Input
Amino acid sequence: MDIKQNVPLSKYSTMRLGGNAAYLLEVSNRNDLSAAVKWAKTNNLPTIMIGSGSNIVWKDEGFPGLVLVNKFMGYQPFAEDSENYYLTIGGGENWDNAVAQSVKAGATGIEGLSLIPGTAGATPVQNVGAYGQDISQTLVSLEAYDTTTDLFVTIPNSDCGFTYRSSKFKTTDRGRFFITGITLHLMIGNPMPPFYPALANYLSERKITTHTPQVIRDAVIEIRKAKLPDPQEVANNGSFFANPIIDQGTLSQILADFPDAVYWPMEGGKTKLSAAWLVEKAGFNKGAYDPETGMGTWRNHSLVLVNEHARKTADLLKFKQKIVDGVANLTGITLVQEPELLP
Ligand SMILES: Cc1cc2nc3c(=O)[nH]c(=O)nc-3n(C[C@H](O)[C@H](O)[C@H](O)COP(=O)(O)OP(=O)(O)OC[C@H]3O[C@@H](n4cnc5c(N)ncnc54)[C@H](O)[C@@H]3O)c2cc1C
Output
């Protein structure tokens, strides 16, 4: 095992900020993973598994233990019959490559999740979702190393505790399971309308009426590219705040004060309020730049905070707080950060 010491974590976050990891290991097989976790336990070091750092903000203090970078590879499709298509993907595989391959095979179920940065193994953690799909809709089960029992386990979908952009891996069992692989159940055939509004508009504006998985993937990629920066080129973590879920009373209050509020009704009487609208309402428009911190908002999307010249995570957090305070003072709503601040 090639455990490295004092590794800059800025290379392991697409925001490109943060201190050092005391120890870091790129891990690609079960033996090394269990040996590394046991070594860390023996040395009283905390452990964490990460993918490609697209949803992580590292603190300036760094991580005082062992960071395990998921490099478990593999892509195994299994066509049960002419309709049912199963896919087992190594946790360290690039997610979008996996989507591309499934789409090429004519399978539907994850084409709406095209171009989401990161690894396959991270998708269950925040139940990644976009354009009306999320991973909980197709995940059969996942393989993980249970750091409590030191055993490899299979966890079925029903035990993942999936909710909107969350799961037990982000809440009650945070940090316990290191996900080494996922198995999905896709269907051969075309995705069926109704599509998510932004996608439906895109298709109808272009008079696209044949909805193959490839057509939907291409559309999603084009919509995303117009809106979101490529983390390879611009340091960012995607949407920095989650859309607040509010009750009917809060919605009525917001609408009384702001008739132009942007929101989407959800099942069960709750409402998803647009965090981007809140951010802009508080005065942080698209393409805003804050000279004090070197941070800004992306030119095409106010919810995406971009690191233009920030040197420390403290700069990012100061800029974030300006937005959170601005929104809270105006509306009483506290925005919640989506990328995880670690450790
Ligand atoms: C430009 C941009 C657009 C984005 N768009 C979307 C979007 O549309 N929808 C969406 O849901 N997300 C989106 N994201 C967020 C991000 O892509 C996802 O959260 C992605 O799943 C993170 O993958 P990762 O491998 O980079 O995980 P990391 O950032 O490395 O890790 C994220 C969290 O998961 C944990 N984790 C990672 N891998 C494992 C594992 N194998 N086992 C256990 N825990 C693990 C980490 O400890 C950490 O807590 C976007 C991000 C960016 C930068």
User: Anything to note?
Assistant: Helices lie at 30-42, 95-104, 197-205, 213-227, 248-257, 275-281, 313-331. The chain has three domains: 4-70, 75-227, 236-342. The first strand starts at residue 4 and ends at 8.
